[in-house]
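Reviewer 2 asked us to include a model.

Predict the structure of this chain.
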Amino acid sequence: MRVTQNMEQTQFLTALNQLESTISSTQNGLSTGLSFTTASQNPVGAGLVSGYNQVLAQSQQYTANGQSAQGSINIEDNALTQVQSQLQTLRSLALEANNATESPADRSAIATQVQQIQGTLLSIANTQDGSGDYIFAGYATQTQPFAASATGATYSGDQGQRLVQIGAGQTVVAADNGDLVFQQIKTGNGTFNVTQGPGNTGSGIIGATTVTNAAGYNGDPYAINFTTPTTYQVVDTATAAVVGGGTYTSGQAIAFAGLSVTLSGAPAALDSFDVTPSTNQSVFTTVQNLANALQQSSTGAASEATLNNSIANAINNIDQALGQVQTVQSSVGARLNTITTQQSVATTQQTQLTQSITTLQGLNYASAITNLDSENTTLSASMQAFTLTQGLSLFKYL
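Predicted model (structure tokens):
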């Protein structure tokens, strides 16, 4: 077959293009730090890298979710700490007001402080995060959860708890709703509550209340009815059955149905004390009831006893509120620990994935530079050889 000059040129240009493509690929690797950038360059490696990148992106998203949840939970934690501080102050004020030496003017001044605490608690309950979301509104993050009312406050949020995924199959609550924190608070001692009858005329004062036998308490409402100033009956008001009774001694516990109630002072005939199962009551209602009680006049033993019982009831409810907030805050701390642990695991995983990707796709710079020098040398030599070859012709010697 005859080899023409045109065929030689075509073959040279084809080889030259291939060499320049190889040089370009090597230079691209040096600029990107990657041994391959397309699946065609390394099909097996590209498939593995693609899988690793997907897992890495997902892990990084979980980390970002965790950091976001951590920010929200820290805001809640700080808010709950403030709530506890306000409730402790409120409890101290209630104890001060329950002192017999306090005058009506003193109690009125304390009532003013109680109302100020009410406003502060409302402000905390309406805390917003950096995005303007209300942290205690449940899912209704754009709705202000609490507004002042005559009975304390109304709740406009919902009962949702916002969950954030921080790992494969692992979620945390990013914020607790206001209903759980501020409204689901048991009255009394958490099991039952004791209040004086509305028509009491004596000076009977409610003291300690305890559950002595949980199995013996059936959850029914009871009434301690004084038939005379020194005798009483205990009636199960759900069945009208008399379940106890006896002679009253001030300061001595009255035991019945697995419960114990201590009364002191001098109840009058027909006075009564109601023992009812604990129900949920908003902390704002507790605060408002305390403020209202402190603003009532108390002249005479009966009205003084009524005031003392109202304040003692408020103190019990404040204690329950403190317990609820502490329980929620313990949960908050556990969630923060969960996020910290998960992020540590994610960091280790991401480091391993990055190393695997680098091992598969990372460029060996020393080898690449050597190859580039060799390829450039080959290109230069090829061009010189082609030039010399093209110069060979008999006509030069004629």
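The chain has three domains: 1-33+363-398, 41-187+279-361, 193-278. The chain has seven helices and twelve strands. We have added this to the supplementary material.
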